[in-house]
Amino acid sequence: MIEHRIVLFLVGWAIAAGLQGLLYLRQRRTLDATAVDAGWAFSLVLLALAYAVLAPGSVEQRALIATLAGLQFLRIGVLVARRIGKGEDRRYADLRSRWRERGREQSSFAVFFQAQALLAALLSVPFLLAAFNEAELGVLEWLGAALWVVAALGEAVADRQLAAHKADPSNKGTTLRSGLWRYSRHPNYFFQWLAWVAYALVALPAPYGWLAIAAPVLMLVSIVFVTGIPPSEEQALRSRGEDYRRYQRETSAFVPWPPRRAG
Q1: With helix as H, strand as E and coil as C, how does 117-129 read?
Q2: How far apart are the C-alpha atoms of 44 and 22, rounded to whole Å?
C-alpha cells in the first residue's frame, strides 16, 4: 500500500508517461500518431487499477471506482486501437504537416504525447481520491454509479448509431440526424463528460473529495473549446459543407435538446 496521495499520483503519472513514451517511439517509426488516443484511454485504465491495488481505502470504494473507470476507458481504448494502422487520424495528419513545415515535427509530437500523459494523470484524480476513502459506500457513491450507467449506455448507443451511419455507403457526405444525433451534434461527447460527473460524485465523500470536481470542469472546457467539438466541426464543415451548416443551425452542439425548426 502507498499511504500518501501525492506519491501515488506521481506513480500514476509515471505509468502514463511510460506508456505514451513507448507509443511516441512507435509514432517515430510509423509516422502515425493515432495511437496517442488509445494510449490516453489505456493510461486511465492502468491508473484506475493501480490506485485500486495500491491505495489504502476500503475494498468497496476501490472496487467501485476501478470497475467504473476501467470499463469505460477499456471500451474507448479498444475502439481507438481498431483504427490504428488504417491511416493517420486527420487531426494528427494536419498537425504533422504544420509542425513539419516549421521544422519541429518530432519534438512537437514528443511534447504532445507527454502532455496527454499529464492530462490522464490529472483527470485520474477522482479515481485516486475515491481509492483513499476508507468509509463504506454511501448515497453519493451509489448516485454516481447510477449516473455512470446512464452515461455509459448513452455513449455506447451514440457510437453505435454513428458507426452504422458511416458503414452505409449511401450516407456518404450526409449528416446523421436520427437517434441521439437528432438532439445533439455530439451526444457521444456529452455522455462521455457525464461519466466524469459520475466519477466526481463517487469521489466527493472522500477526504479532499471536492478536488474531484476539477476533472469534469477540465473535460468540459477541453471538449467544448479545445480538442473535442471545434476540430470535429471544422472537419465536418470541410467534408459536408452546407448540409452540416444547416445541422448546426437546427441542433444543439452539446447538451441533448429538441431540435430547432429550420429557418
Answers
A1: HHHHHHHCHHHHH
A2: 16
Please spell the DSSP secondary structure of 147-175, one letter per residue. Answer: HHHHHHHHHHHHHHHHHHHHH-GGGTT--
Distance CA(204)–CA(133), nearest Å, equals 10
User: From CA 244, how far away is CA 74, in angstroms rounded?
Assistant: 31
* HEC readout, the chain: CCCCHHHHHHHHHHHHHHHHHHHHHHHHHHCCCCHHHHHHHHHHHHHHHHHHHHCCCCHHHHHHHHHHHHHHHHHHHHHHHCCCCCCCCHHHHHHHHHHHHCCCHHHHHHHHHHHHHHHHHHHCHHHHHHHCCCCCCCHHHHHHHHHHHHHHHHHHHHHHHHHHHHHCHHHCCCCCCCHHHHCCCCHHHHHHHHHHHHHHHHHCCCCCHHHHHHHHHHHHHHHHHHCCHHHHHHHHHHHHCHHHHHHHHHCCCCCCCCCCCCC
**pLDDT tens digits for range 4-29:** 999 999 999 999 999 999 999 999 99
What are the pLDDT digits (tens) for 138-172?
A: 999 999 999 999 999 999 999 999 999 999 999 98
pTM to 2 decimals? 0.92
Phi, psi of 123 (to 5 degrees): -70, -20
Provide the pLDDT for residue 262.
Answer: 59
Average pLDDT of the chain to the nearest whole number:
94
Closest CA relative to residue 19, chosen from 43, 45, 35: 43
User: Residues 150, 207: contact at Cβ < 8 Å?
Assistant: no
What does residue 256 show for φ and ψ, rounded to 5 degrees? -55, 130
Is the distance from CB of 68 to CB of 198 less than 8 angstroms?
A: yes
